[in-house]
């Protein structure tokens, strides 16, 4: 038989265990927000109805989905870069076009425009400046400047910009020839739209921004849309690429796990 004093001690012990458990959980979340900041994690907490444990799980799930994208993004970037390089090497009959065209299409007069309303003159030098910046980086590192090294220094945005109307016209539409399996009626606009989605998404995950929300809800539909854009671009280049990436494509599985937190 449990006496009153024993009962009191048992109650106090159970309360102590509860408080200790609560403090541990609270401290875990406090540390989490300390390291990752309340403004950054606040959106996750709201989406999880202030459930701190679920908030931490969602943050990790977001990171895991972002992680799953890197192999596919890497494949697409390399295939796009090499493919466009091949097309422009043929177009200019020059394997060193990326260096030699600094005085060619990169400074074409068509890249200078006058605003009809303001009269302000603007000149697009994004491609030229990207090449010069790559050359400067190589010089500072004491590395010889070669076309291959300058090409490898270029960002995803560099290759995407070649599908923008201004450069595309100057290049006489040559970049689109990389996409040999476009659906009927598809062209530069559709390719650029998909490339832009991927580029913007790539920037988000590289800056550790959330990809698990639509508005304030936990929703990976936009993320899956970008995944489909990656598949489209690879398929339009060569359907065989889809088979090649199957064993490294973990995106759907990772998203499914993320939705179960």
Summarize the helices and strands and which ones pair or pack.
Layout lengths: L3 H33 L1 H10 L4 H41 L4 H4 L11 E3 L6 E3 L2 H15 L6 H7 L2 H6 L3 H6 L17 H19 L6 E2 L2 E2 L2 H17 L2 H6 L5 H8 L3
Helix pairs in contact: 2-3, 3-10, 3-12, 5-6, 9-10
Structure description:
The structure is a single chain. By secondary structure, the chain is mainly α. It has one domain (67-258). It has twelve helices and four strands, in the order H-H-H-H-E-E-H-H-H-H-H-E-E-H-H-H. It has helices at 4-36, 38-47, 52-92, 97-100, 126-140, 147-153, 156-161, 165-170, 188-206, 221-237, 240-245, 251-258, and strands at 112-114, 121-123, 213-214, 217-218. Strands 1-2 form a two-stranded antiparallel sheet. Helix 2 (38-47) packs across helix 3 (52-92), helix 5 (126-140) crosses helix 6 and helix 9 (188-206) packs across helix 10 (221-237). The chain is globular. The relative contact order is 0.12. The model is unreliable at 16-25 (pLDDT under 50).
Outline of the structure:
66% of the residues lie in helices and 4% in strands. It is mainly alpha-helical and 261 residues long. The protein has one domain (67-258).
Strands in their spatial order, largest beta sheet: 1-2
Q: Biggest sheet: strands, sense, closure?
A: 2 strands, antiparallel
Oligomer designation? single chain
Shape: globular
Overall pLDDT metric? 92
| Continuous helix count | 12
Number of strands: 4
State the helical fraction.
55-70%
Structural class: mainly alpha
Measure the end-to-end span.
44 Å
């Amino acid at each position: 038989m449990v006496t009153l004093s024993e009962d009191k001690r048992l109650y106090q012990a159970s309360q102590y265990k509860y408080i200790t458990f609560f403090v541990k959980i609270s401290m875990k979340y406090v540390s989490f927000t300390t390291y990752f900041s309340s403004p950054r994690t606040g959106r996750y907490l709201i989406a999880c109805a202030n459930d701190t444990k679920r908030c931490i799980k969602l943050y990790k799930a977001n990171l895991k989905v972002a992680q799953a994208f890197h192999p596919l993004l890497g494949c697409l970037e390399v295939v796009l870069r090499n493919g466009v390089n091949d097309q422009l090497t043929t177009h200019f009959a020059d394997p060193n076009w990326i260096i030699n065209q600094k005085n060619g299409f990169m400074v074409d007069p068509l890249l200078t425009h006058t605003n009809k309303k303001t009269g302000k003159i603007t000149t697009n030098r994004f491609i030229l400046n990207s090449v010069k910046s790559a050359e400067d980086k190589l010089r500072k590192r004491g590395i010889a400047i070669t076309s291959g090294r300058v090409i490898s220094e270029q960002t995803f945005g560099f290759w995407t910009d070649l599908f923008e109307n201004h450069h595309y016209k100057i290049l006489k539409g040559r970049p689109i020839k990389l996409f040999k399996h476009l659906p009927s009626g598809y062209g530069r606009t559709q390719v650029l739209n998909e490339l832009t989605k991927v580029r913007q998404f790539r920037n988000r995950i590289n800056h550790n921004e959330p990809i698990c929300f639509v508005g304030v809800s936990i929703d990976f539909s936009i993320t899956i849309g970008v995944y489909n854009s990656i598949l489209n671009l690879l398929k339009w280049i060569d359907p065989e690429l889809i088979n090649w990436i199957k064993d490294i494509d973990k995106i759907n599985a990772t998203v499914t796990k993320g939705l179960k937190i």
